[in-house]
Amino acid sequence: MTAADLEEFEEELETCFGTSCGFCERGCPVYQALKVRTLSMKGRNRTMLGLLKGKFDITPSVVKAAFECTLCGNCDRWCSLKNTEHTRAFREYLLKHGVEPMKEHSSLLASMKNYGNPWLQPRSARGKWLRGLDIPKAAKGNQEVLFFAGCTSAVMKPLVPSLVASAKLLKRAGVDFAVIGQDEPCCGSTLLRVGQTDAFEKLEKENFDRFKALGVKRIVTACPGCYTTLKKSAEKLGSDIAINHITQEIANLIRSGDLKVEKSSEKMTYHDPCHLGRLGGIFDEPREIVDAVADLVEMPNCRYEARCCGAGAGLQSAFPRLSRELAAKKVDEAKGTGATTLVTCCPFCETQLKTAPGINVVDLMQLLLEAIEKGEKKNTSG
Ligand code: SF4
Ligand code: SF4
After folding, report:
1. Fewest CB atoms within 10 Å of the CB: 15, 125, 148, 158?
2. Model pLDDT for residues 86-113, shown as the tens digit of each residue
3. Cα(82)–Cα(197) distance, integer angstroms
4. Which ligand is located closest to the Cα atom of residue 305?
5. CATH code at 310?
6. Would 353 be classed as within a structural domain?
7. What angle do CA 369, 371, 375 make, to 5 degrees?
8. Would the CB of 29 count as within 6 Å of ligand 2?
9. Closest-lying ligand 2 atom to the alpha carbon of residue 76
10. If you take atom 6 of ligand 2, which residue's CA is the nearest one?
11. Is 293 within a domain?
């Protein structure tokens, strides 16, 4: 993910203008909800081209077109152009041309600056999830496996149980890992998605220097946003640190027999978080885990075609009504499968999907840990 200026995409924008096929609109959650063409990728590409050619001025509706998008990547699925990169560059272009960050994003950015997380939580909140867990802190030069908690799950109380479940599962399976704890940095995902590329690039360099100094060879994270951000940063910076999502680790541990779970006949469906699935390429491992616990049923739009929950890229904070509407659509699709439970493995998706009533939403790691513990209890009492 090397930062590219909008001007570098001009040829792609011309291609879109010439093609105008509109395939990108089929799976775009924003376009499908609002049917406003300037908010589809086809419309947004035209707006960017008009700006570059001096045909448009920067107006409030141009700014809206840049930011009313979840960067879910569904439009890239139907098109050979790098559409989500265009949008990210568009946001950066506007900020560099004097547009103030959206007021809802300003508080996220101020929080990043003051507290190192976008959630207005003090730095001291970052390590609280570790209380009572007996997990070692990473020490300089000798920590091969680092569990990277990510700020969203670490500082948002309702999400802490899923983080704790991830760590407990790794411990149960005997994985030798450590954490940074209270001083853990942000991966920078929020900065990147709202167009603050310079600040992001400074942060990612500091982060990888720090990981290197700790002797880290593998990072395991439970947050899909951290996963794609850290993975792309590692590639860009030429780092040989492997970046894994917790579902890859846990699926391996189930396959090897280090984690054992009894399957129930309950029907559950799985929501692919955009950052894990379409943008991160991880579709099978979470399904293997759900399938080990319950009867997995798929939604009509799944894997590459999965519809975004509506939380990402600042949409939840800047366009809350639309964001909630997208969550409700997703939950309706899940209910249509006949499943009693909607499983996901992303803190943003979990929080977002819980805003729409009608189905039990659970985190995959919590689901697995509870199933293992329940099985053990049954075997002990039986
Ligand atoms: S973004 Fe791609 S799919 Fe959409 S109209 Fe342009 S060329 Fe077609
Ligand atoms: S990234 Fe997602 S929300 Fe944004 S234009 Fe593409 S499909 Fe629509």
Report:
1. 158
2. 999 999 899 889 887 667 677 778 888 8
3. 17
4. 2
5. 3.40.50.1860
6. yes
7. 120
8. yes
9. 6
10. 75
11. yes
